[in-house]
């Protein structure tokens, strides 16, 4: 009668040992570099998780934040253009709560400058950061809960095992080449490649007027125009701007913030004009408030790239109505370095007024 109970105890003991062994493997390998810097580290495009490790393991003086409009920049290009040591923390589809939280962690770790791609949609209403299902605040804060979720993660154990195998000299090169095609997240050998455009990207294929116009036709189709205004609530967006952006900036008066409005194609605003004018009014009213508030803060430099007609009216610069090519990325860095499109605090809405005039006058040509 005792034998089944003995087997059960052995099974439980073996299970506990396996779990503890996996946790020990994660701690030793530390694929996220949450505890220590590793010269054999690989990186993941899962930026909401990867950023927690980057903030801990990288050396930087400047944090670069944004959405998918800023995700394809390379840190090396940022460093070269702006003469800084940057850490790119951009996250696709991120909101202002997530961005402000991650930036706060970077500032606490030594960032003295923030470059912040800021667009209207980040201020849509969403869950508070403590309840956010997509960003583990405990992982960033390294609480007991966050560390436990990391050490006892089956996914991290798998990544750790793969990293361990990849560290064996005969296996390193073949596994590194194979990593992008295997079910592992930590496959990038260089931090500069995290969510960056491939160096051999075919610009003419991926960015052209045909694709931009097709995107415009898609989002303005009668069956989909309601999505143009989804999440746009003026009062909620102003509230989140004040809480997340103004709150973060005023808490850190010793940090310089370079905030910029990205160069959407003109068709983004024309789509709102034609299919959802109430949304366009919210965008214009919101960005007027943002411009007026930010230009009054002594540690903020605001840059507005939305009315640069030579760029935003050239539809060959875009892959859809908002996402611009790597060539425009380089222009953005040049403009940030020169300050040529910096908003004058004495005329905070001048560029916005120019944009409004362009949107009103523009006619779509297929």
Question: Would you kindly provide a written description of the structure presented here, covering whatever features stand out?
Answer:
This protein has 366 residues and is an alpha/beta fold. It has a domain at 198-366. It is 51% helix and 6% strand. It has 16 helices and five strands. It has a five-stranded parallel sheet, with helices on both faces. Strand 1, helix 3 and strand 2 (86-88) form a beta-alpha-beta unit. Helix 1 (2-29) packs across helix 7. The chain is elongated. The model has no long low-confidence stretch (mean pLDDT 93).
> Could you give the order of the helices and strands?
HHEHEHEHHHHHHHEHHEHHH
User: What form results from the Cα inertia axes?
Assistant: elongated
Low-confidence parts: none
Number of strands: 5
Note the total helix count: 16
- How far the N terminus sits from the C terminus, by CA atoms, comes to 82 Å
Rg (CA only): 23 Å
Helix content bin: 40-55%
What does the average pLDDT come to?
93
Structural class, by secondary structure, is: alpha/beta
**In order across it, which strands form the biggest sheet?**
2-1-3-4-5
Give a quick account of the main beta sheet: strands, pairing sense, barrel closure.
5 strands, parallel
Strand percentage, roughly?
Answer: 5-15%
